[in-house]
Write a structure and sequence with these properties.
Shape: globular
Radius of gyration: 15 Å
Distance between the termini: 44 Å
Order of helices and strands: EEEEHHEEEHH
Number of strands: 7
Helix content: 25-40%
Number of helices: 4
Largest sheet: 7 strands, mixed
């Protein structure tokens, strides 16, 4: 029997050298920090899902960002990479986006049942946080730093 595959998106928002993080309060990874992320809806394109998640999770609309989303790549992870996940085994196929915004405008926690806090952290602060980040966010930030290093070479 084939392993089910969920499709998702994660968006790293960078502003003045810091990344936007949300602290989880629901389902899995409770107490850990993550970038805005979520599942694709039926028939939805990954880029549309990324913009929808930004609107739902932090009230940020594409027209407010002053920057486009840059697709960086796809991250494949098994559900068991999150030790707090208790559902059936599945694979995640997650499209990873990055945006370096010039202005941020008014943002807020749009899903208070899922997130309890919002904050900004530099890459170094994220590294020090270590296990305080969700697996997917830690992976995305490592991926992004490698991407930025390649751009500068």
């Amino acid at each position: 029997m084939p392993v089910p595959v969920e499709r998702g998106v994660i968006v790293v928002i960078e502003h003045d050298g810091r990344y936007l993080l949300l602290k989880r309060r629901a389902k899995h990874s409770i107490g850990k920090w993550e970038c805005p992320a979520g599942k694709l809806e039926e028939g939805e394109l990954p880029e549309h899902a990324a913009y929808r998640e930004l609107d739902e999770e932090i009230g940020l609309r594409g027209c407010d960002m002053g920057a486009a989303l840059t697709p960086i790549g796809t991250i494949y992870t098994p559900s068991i990479s999150d030790p707090t996940y208790t559902g059936p085994f599945k694979m995640w196929n997650t499209q990873f986006y990055w945006t370096k915004v010039r202005r941020i405008g008014q943002i807020h926690i749009g899903e208070p049942d899922i997130h309890s806090e919002m904050g900004w952290a530099s890459h170094e602060e994220c590294l020090r946080a270590g296990t305080e980040l969700t697996y997917m966010t830690r992976t995305a930030l490592e991926f992004l730093e490698a991407y930025k290093t390649d751009l500068s070479n």
